[in-house]
Structure formats: structure tokens, C-alpha cells
Amino acid sequence: MKIRIALLVLVIFFLAWSAFQPNGVLVTVQNNFWAINLQNLLKTEHGQLNQVSLPTFTSHSSVLLARQAIREEQLEFSQSVLLPLLDDQDRVVQGTYAELLYAKGQKIEAIGIWEKLSDTIVLERVANQSSAEGDRKNLLAAYQSLYQLDQAKYTSSLAFTLKSQGQLKEAEELLIRSRKDFPDSEYKSDWLRYLADIYSANSDWQKAEDVYRQVILENPKDGRAWRNLGLLYTSHLDMPDKAIECFQEMISISPSESYGYSLLAQTYETIGDTEKAISTYQALLVIDPGNTAALEAIERLSDLEP
User: Fold this and answer.
1) How far is CA 16 from CA 33, 187, 194, 222, in A?
2) Which of 129, 163, 157, 131 is closest to 143 using CA atoms?
3) Each residue of 51-100: pLDDT tens digit?
């Protein structure tokens, strides 16, 4: 009996204490009841959010209402709910306000808030969406913010974005700086390969060749470096023999991928070595039996043989 009384006193004391706490049990209960009532309203009276009484017990209840208003594109109402809460610098409030700004088309401002919140997940989502929509401005802004949050991790993405938007000098400087600042990074040789790609895009063939060679010295198993160097030899430097060496290395690194065989066979065709071209296309068909380009090439080249 005494134990029951003691437990009852403890519960009463805890509830009384909670009543005076900003995030106590009673506030949680109030918040849950309010949220349930909001959900019931949404089920029966869609579009009537402005009829909902704003809660006074926690800001997070207001955030729930503001989020729903954003989903229903009632942006002005959402803003009226959020603005009084912004001075508190609450992370959830700030994140929801960023969602509102993004929905209103103020995407750069929204990206800035997510950067301050270090919200890389949302920023990556923004970058992916911007890429899909062809939104170059906000794609660049998202990756610039991600880079500020984790320079080593997002150097490649930002450099690729800068390069794709024609900002070759900026991309070059970024890659060189990251190589200097993060000499032990696992992405170090990738950055160097991207740098060579930039020189190639800028028609600086000799510099591109030198840097691709440096990449291979650092990482001999970089199949993409061998591929790009081989393409450089075939497309711009007129060195098919060196290209053949590159594509052979590419195949040795990834023998189950068809692209290396295709490039090698095409190079043999370029120098008129029909026999090796045919045998390389046949090797391609072993790993990719349905490759129509290889089948057509073998048929075409077989007609040329004496």
C-alpha cells in the first residue's frame, strides 16, 4: 500500500513539474491532441487551413501547420505562421522557412539557410532536382554550399558543374587548390583526371596528355584516365599506336566491359589492321553477344579481306 501511495505521489509531482516546463509531458500531450485534430480537419475540410487556430504551447505545432500549408500551396498563410517564430532561431522553424522560400521561387535564399543549417541531405536533393530541371543557377549554388560544408567531399561535384557551365578557369583553380589542401584525399587522382579533362576541353592537348600521364603514375588502375588519354591520341594528337596501348590497358583493367574493346577495334580499323580489328570485335561479342555494332563491323570488315 505504501509503495502505491509513493508511486502516486511521484506521478503527481512529475505531472506538476511538467506543467511548468516548455517541453514537458503535458505540452507533448497537448501537441499530440492538436496534431490529431489538424489531421481530422484535413480529411474532412481540405483547403481550410486558415480556419485552424494557431497553437500557443509549442512552435513545432505551428511548423506542422506551416508545412501542410506549403503542401497545399497556401504560401502566404504558411508565411504568416512562420514569421513570428523566426527570431527564436529554432532549427526546425528555419528549415521550414527555407522550404517556404524555395516554394516561392526564392531558391538562392533557401539554399543559404540550408547551408547555415549544414543540411547536406536537402542540398543534395536540391542539386539533383536542379540538374533534372536544367536549372544551372541553382545547381551551381547548391554545390557551392555543399562545398563550403565539406570541401574534400564536394570538390568533384562543384568542379564538374563549373566545367559543364563553361567556367573552366574556376574549375581548374578549384581542383588545384583541393589537391594542395587535401594531399591525402582518396579523391586526389580523380581531381587530377578532371584537371586533364579541363585542359582537353580547353584544347590544350599537350598539357592534357602530361596530366593524364601523371594520373596514371599516381593510379595505374584508373581505367577512365587510360580511356581519355587514348581518345586524346586518336581524336587530337594523331597517335593511334599510343592509343592502342591505352585501350589495351583499359581492357586489362576492366576485361568485362565492352567499351574498351570497341575503342580498340575502331583504332585498328583506323590504321587499316583489319585482322586485329575483326578479332577484337569477336572478343567483344564474347562478353556482349548482342552487340549489333560489333556484328555489323565484322560483316563489313570481312568483305574487305582478300
Assistant:
1) 19, 57, 64, 67
2) 157
3) 555 555 456 778 888 888 899 899 998 898 888 888 878 899 999 999 99
